[in-house]
Write a structure and sequence with these properties.
- There is one protein chain.
- This protein is of the alpha/beta class.
């Protein structure tokens, strides 16, 4: 039926390229867009264009920031610049920030090592982290990768690479369920795991 409406078929095909958008929701999202009025559609498209043009990743921590502006995390005097919490993605960064209990800075890897998915160490920001740790300003590295095989492998790889810097390496407490992602946990669990971190 959709093939008889080529423009709709193209919309569905485009939405299918969006990661994390469940297949069962694609038609709901398409229907939502088709019912939006022209003004809201223009605002939505303008927001996407502005974001793509004006937002970039920090060269140090890889967090999203406005182009041409210093990173609000890396330059904040309220942050402990000597404590670096290493997370896989922006979503995990947000999960920890929501706890309100962490006052150090972050390093966002951009994912986890997964050879089966074609993600190797050089595809992540691990080299930038190594340089950051070897600079001499870092006093603790918290490996807050997800408690999954990929997350554990990534944490072990990073630990082996920065061991020579003789910086204390800690990880989240084991209250974090195996196979789970930080972004889906309640803030109390994340805060407790961060507060009770232990040597890696």
């Amino acid at each position: 039926m959709i093939q008889n409406v080529p423009t709709l078929a193209q919309l569905i095909k485009t939405l299918q390229q969006v990661p994390y958008l469940a297949s069962k929701n694609i038609y709901k999202v398409a229907n939502h867009f088709l019912h939006m009025d022209e003004k809201k559609i223009e605002q939505f498209c303008a927001a996407l264009r502005d974001a793509k043009a004006k937002i970039t990743q920090c060269d140090v921590c890889a967090a999203w920031q406005e182009k041409g502006h210093p990173c609000s995390l890396c330059t904040s005097p309220k942050r402990d610049q000597s404590t670096v919490c290493v997370v896989e993605t922006w979503q995990e960064f947000l999960a920890i920030e929501k706890t309100g209990g962490y006052h150090g800075v972050y390093h966002i890897l951009g994912g986890a090592i997964s050879p089966l998915e074609g993600i190797n160490p050089e595809d992540l920001t691990i080299n930038q982290l190594i340089v950051r740790v070897q600079s001499g300003t870092v006093k603790e590295v918290i490996l807050a990768t997800n408690n999954t095989p990929e997350g554990e492998a990534t944490a072990s790889f990073i630990a082996s690479k920065i061991k020579s810097a003789q910086v204390p390496i800690t990880c989240l407490a084991r209250g974090v369920p195996v196979g789970s992602s930080l972004e889906y946990m309640d803030r109390v669990t994340v805060y407790k795991a961060l507060s009770d971190r232990r040597p890696f």
